[in-house]
Amino acid sequence: MTAEYFSYTLNFKRPSGTSRGILRQKQSFFIVIREENRWGIGECGVLWGLSPDPKEDYEDRLSHLCQNIHLGLETLLNDLDPYPSIRMGLMTAFASFDSDDPMRLYSSDFTSGREGIDINGLIWMGDFSFMNAQIKARLNDGFRCLKLKIGAHDFDQEYQLIRQLRGQYNPDDLEIRVDANGAFDQKTALEKLKRLSELKLHSIEQPIMPGQWSSMAELVAQSPLDIALDEELIGLYSDEEKCRMIDEIKPDYLILKPSLIGGFDRAKQWIEWAENRDIGWWVTSALESNIGLNAIAQFTASESRSMPQGLGTGSLYLNNIPSPLVVEQAKLYYDLGQQWSFNFLNL
Description:
The chain has about 350 residues and is an alpha/beta fold. The chain has 11 helices and 13 strands. It has helices spanning about 60-65, 75, 85-100, 130-140, 155-170, 185-195, 215-220, 240-250, 260, 265-275, 290-300; strands at about 1-20, 20-35, 40-45, 115-120, 120-125, 145-150, 175-180, 205, 225-230, 255, 280-285, 325-330, 330-335. A hairpin with a 2-residue loop joins strand 12 (about 325-330) and strand 13 (about 330-335).
């Protein structure tokens, strides 16, 4: 058995805005395992600035893993907690290698092409004409659940945009989620949540920056709008710390990004903790290429889910890896009539 890793730069079709700035490119890494005629691939979907992975020795760690791939997954996972994206990529590569079809990791009605996964339509930050154009396009595409990134502009302007949207579509016809990415100030967050709740939104993700458990707990207790935790889950390693966070904050939802929390086994553990506490959850990709998105979508399809998931980022890039993943009428499908292309990896 041998292994190697590759770096790949994904180029956005259009600069995409978040509360942390404008994204024009996104770097990913791929681990490829080979043995005779078998191979497997996994994406290390690191997101610099949000992933807790140390950047200074990231490639050194990848190189070390590839040089010692013969030691097996269980041994190689030791000491990888601080590198959640590498942990995710390594586990996916082994699962891909062990599968009869390297790109079909979980057997389900999704991978057989019979069933799609309900997803939300993502509205990226930008000027308001751009955001409006995105909203119209998503609605025309059949989406009835939209997720709006907020926090980069004047709150009153953002409020008016959502108010205008809600005036056209009632909650039974359109579910609206918003994601603040921690942009709200503690002093004004509750007031903003109360105003947003007037618009009958589904929920808000991470209204204030993570790590402020007592302040977030107060917001959850007082907010008339349901609160979902996203960045709050990132960078926690021990089970004790994770459970202590959930039990102190008592969120309404957890949002699971496997590339940022260390892989599917960690995601399954979060799901178990959430369901034991009557907390809702959904899975979200984190700007991976189609290789990472494929693995995340297949994992999500294998879990019992009851709401739209956040899995629609594959069309953002000019140079994504061609794949069978397609979005039709607000569902993500695995189209068996389309093929993967790995020319850039010489597979």
